[in-house]
Write a structure and sequence with these properties.
Blueprint lengths: L2 H14 L3 E3 L11 E3 L1 H20 L4 E3 L8 H7 L1 H4 L1 E7 L5 E3 H10 L11 H5 L1 H7 L9 E8 L3 E3 L9 E3 L5 H6 L1 H7 L6 E10 L14 E11 L4 H18 L7 E5 L11 E9 L2 E12 L1 H10 L5 E3 L4 E3 L2 E8 H12 E8 L2 E8 L10 E5 L5 H15 L4 E3 L5 H10 L4 E5 L1 H6 L1 E6 L5 E5 L3 H9 L9 E3 L1
Parallel strand pairs: 3-9, 19-20, 19-21
Antiparallel strand pairs: 1-2, 4-5, 4-6, 7-8, 9-10, 10-16, 11-12, 12-13, 13-16, 14-15, 17-18, 21-22, 22-23, 23-24
């Protein structure tokens, strides 16, 4: 399947099955913003829950935080965001379309079209102003205004009067909330270095050119840890976190061939970083960043100590010394993880249908992530007692699993709907159910079916979700 075609199919599936919608769609939409539908919000919550369980609950050295989105403006002065959180913006003089300059140069270079405007050496390509004097707008062929720096932070105001003293920003990352609360956590949570502070939350960046569906948006959600360590031990913990984070994605069913670690070159490193890698995923539009893991040294805490005047040193009781900790930062995107697990789980299979061969679309999501665990599907019938029995089973299972009840359309069509959103088990009630209190369980991946007693249904579904072999849990239906 061509990669671009795959992405279009996934975007269509997301809209059709209530996973992701364009924000404000009835008004024509707004670029770089998306809403998560009934299925999408369950998948998104499951990703965040899996991350929180594995990164916080199952570790003894990481605690949680939920910092506010709007912070004191000096936070962003100290962090460098006000002065340097910029992208190069190129605007066409004719059509006034705007492009991120470095991305446009890379796109032209990769496609071999850059040299159509003249031969550019590596040094010339680094000089954006000279490049944009020669190249033309890819949309209308017009000339460009020289690129200028564009700050990515959204501005807002605090209080009833819009004045300079009330100016604030929507946070462009969740990390700074952790740094400014570092001392509070240290004083109240009885933690000792090495320890981490974890946070899941929204961030906002006024991207020049959002794109690739939910990969690059203006409002997004991060899953981030700042892990504080003693200077000199940072390289060991940096390597540990690279392994831990890669293993986490593989543990959620991401195929090994679709994920890799890419180390940043020296000229790519942020000014504060000693080292950084990207966990990259093979999206339909190419290898791109899923998560960044950086050794941020002591830059952030030193900056906030300088600007706030507060002591952010750590007293080591064993060595009787005081130092500013180094920080290892694994920072993952919730939205990027969501689209990666959908891409990885997406499968098209040729199966036997009522009218012969047909294509089955199925999301083979990891059981921890599947939005719906169990679907209850009564056989279509005019017998009310069959519907009543199915609803009784549905209400029973609702106490233990995320369930959905569906009595619309043929049983085959309902199976296909459940396959497309990754529902793990479908429970079918039929006339035999009324006779012997048994139901049919259908497995999403194999489509095999077993017959089980209703009184054992909850325990059997639990075993299926815990990876016990499906066919050993009931009588095979042929």
């Amino acid at each position: 399947m061509p990669e671009t075609n795959l992405m279009l199919k996934i975007i269509s599936l997301c809209k059709r099955r209530g996973i992701i919608y364009q924000s404000s769609e009835i008004y024509g939409g707004i670029g770089g913003f998306y809403d998560y539908g009934p299925i999408g919000v369950e998948l998104k919550n499951n990703i965040k829950k899996a991350w929180w369980e594995d990164m916080v609950w199952k570790r003894g050295d990481v605690v949680g935080l939920d910092a506010s989105i709007i912070m004191h403006p000096l936070v962003w002065k100290a962090s460098g965001h006000i002065d340097s959180f910029t992208d190069p913006l190129a605007e066409c003089k004719n059509c006034h379309l705007r492009f991120r300059a470095d991305h446009l140069i890379k796109k032209l270079k990769d496609s071999g079209k850059l040299d159509e405007h003249g031969i550019f050496t590596e040094e010339e390509v680094k000089d954006m102003e000279s490049v944009f004097q020669k190249i033309k707008c890819p949309e209308c062929g017009g000339p460009f205004v020289p690129p200028r720096k564009f700050n990515l932070m959204f501005k807002t105001s605090v209080g009833p009067v819009e004045e300079e003293g009330a100016m604030a920003y929507l946070r462009p990352e969740t990390a700074q909330g952790i740094f400014v609360d570092y001392r509070n956590v240290l004083d109240t949570a009885r933690v000792k270095i090495p320890f981490g502070i974890a946070q899941i939350g929204k961030a906002f960046r006024n991207e020049i050119t959002p794109g690739n569906f939910i990969f690059r948006t203006r409002e997004f959600e991060q899953m981030e840890i700042e892990y504080f360590v003693k200077p000199g031990t940072d390289e060991k913990f940096y390597q540990d976190w690279i392994k831990w984070r890669l293993d986490w994605y593989l543990g959620l069913g991401i195929r090994k061939e679709n994920i890799k670690i890419r180390e940043h070159e020296k000229d790519e490193l942020a000014h504060y970083a000693k080292a950084c890698v990207d966990v990259e995923y093979k999206f339909p539009f190419g290898w791109s960043e899923l998560e960044g893991i950086a050794n941020r040294t002591d830059f952030d805490l030193k900056q906030h100590q300088k600007f706030s005047g507060k002591d952010l040193g750590y007293f080591d009781e064993n060595e009787k010394t005081v130092y500013i900790p180094y920080v290892i930062e694994p920072s993952a995107g919730v939205d990027r993880t969501l689209i990666a697990v959908i891409v990885d789980a997406y499968s098209e299979e040729e199966v036997e249908g009522v009218k012969g061969k047909e294509t089955r679309v199925v999301l083979k999501l990891h059981k921890r992530l599947a939005p719906i665990k169990v679907a209850v599907l009564p056989l279509l019938s005019n017998r009310q007692e069959l519907v009543d029995k199915a609803k009784e089973i549905y209400h029973l299972l609702q106490n233990y699993f995320v369930c959905q009840y569906d009595e619309t359309g043929s049983i085959g069509r309902r199976y296909r709907r459940m396959d497309e959103v990754g529902t793990i088990i479908s429970v079918t009630c039929d006339f035999q159910t009324l006779e012997d209190n048994t139901v049919t369980l259908r497995d999403r991946d194999s489509m095999k079916q077993i017959r089980v007693e209703i009184q054992k249904l909850k325990d059997i579904i639990q075993k299926i979700l815990e990876e016990e072999e499906f066919l050993k849990l009931g009588k095979l239906v042929k």
